[in-house]
Amino acid sequence: MPSTLRAMTTNYNLPDGPKMPYYLRLIKFIAQPVKYVEDFAKVYGDTFTIWGRGDTHMVYFSRPQALEQIFTADSSHFESGRGNTGLKFLLGDRSFMLADGERHQRQRQLLAPPFHGERMRAYGEDIREIARQVSSEWAIGKPFNIRASMQEITLRVILRVVFGLDEGPLFEELRRSLTSLLDFISSPIMSSAFFLRFMQRSLGEWSPWARLLRQRQVVEKLIYTLIRERRAESYQNRQDILSLMMAARYDDGQPMSDAELHDELMTLLVAGHETTASALTWAFYWIDYLPEVREQLLQELATLDVNPDLSSIAKLPYLTAVCQETLRIYPIAMTAFVRVVKTPIEIGGYQLPEGTLIIPSIYLAHHREEVYPQPKQFKPERFLARQFSPYEYLPFGGGSRRCIGMAFAQYEMKVVLATILADFQISLTNKRPVRPVRRGLTLATPTGMRMIATPQVKRANTPVLV
Prior knowledge:
It is a single chain. This protein is α+β, with helices and mostly antiparallel strands. The protein has one domain: CATH 1.10.630.10. 50% of the residues lie in helices and 9% in strands. It has a five-stranded mixed beta sheet. The chain is globular, with a radius of gyration of 23 Å. The N and C termini lie far apart (53 Å). The model is unreliable at 1-9 and 462-466 (pLDDT under 50).
């Protein structure tokens, strides 16, 4: 039904959008996530409606003005937790990502401190040490799976920094079980299960969903074992995030329950492992694919001391720009948190009724020609030339739902890149362009992308051209 007719019959006006059969559209959404939004935007413009069944429709927004309205609106207009209930099977009922209103704000305030300031920077040495450990295992001159290595780094960082584990039987069990669970969730068949409800059923002991639930139960048992062991010891002087969460108190003086700790640990794991691994993999791809980017980055890194202070790494302008452009061109999450309209609201000149799903499109916002000239080109220099508003550049979402680990993820990216590039040149085995694929809920490089590590040529300090 045309949007004008809908406006006449409902007193609301929604932008126009595709009239594709539901399952054809869903298949394209799963199999071709970038083409899905680009094709619709070409036909309908940067704001369009995906007509749903009944009265539930999704409206995509990517204009900075509309995104500002969404991110600065009173949160009482929306239910964001409800828009992400598909993650409940993985994260649990008590995850702050699934909460709304006061409960969301309370949990977020409790979790935020370790991811900022001095506490966050204190984890830098752990990140650098883990990056060196993993990269030292590469066989010089022999192809290796770059994504698998980045996943190993980010998982070990989470186990040490968040869980407080870096050795022992429980560490090995968690490392093995979490890797198995996350790899299975991100496989092509399970990526589809996030969006196809009929696949979220256990159809016998060896069906995909039954296997997923078994793997999740193993991880759940190990996490509760860790929580019990940590409570039994003196954790007050520990600096890992689990111990800090245990020591934290709500305004009423109450600590987090074991169930809350479990669900928040799962949330931090899922949100911080695959995402950062994908971003690092993309960064190494672009650094090698574009020799001029590699050369300028190596010139900048050559200005550092042999064992540089981590704060100096974090401040490097071109390294920062490379990380920013990596997250712009193929944002790991294509959309920010879905907002479900709770009370009617006007966004971008459209009157949205209750029940409308608002989709802030990070990908389309990052590819606006008037904001990012030649948006398909990887150009770190654009971030040296100007600053972008949080409604133009939003790889971590925005508003009260912006990723809690944003600063930590950016810091981790810089430390890992600087550490590995100091010792190795990482080269693609195949120089053909790489296109993003769906990996669970994220955009990633193809799973089998391989690279070769060779010793980095040490160079004298040289001026950096910016």
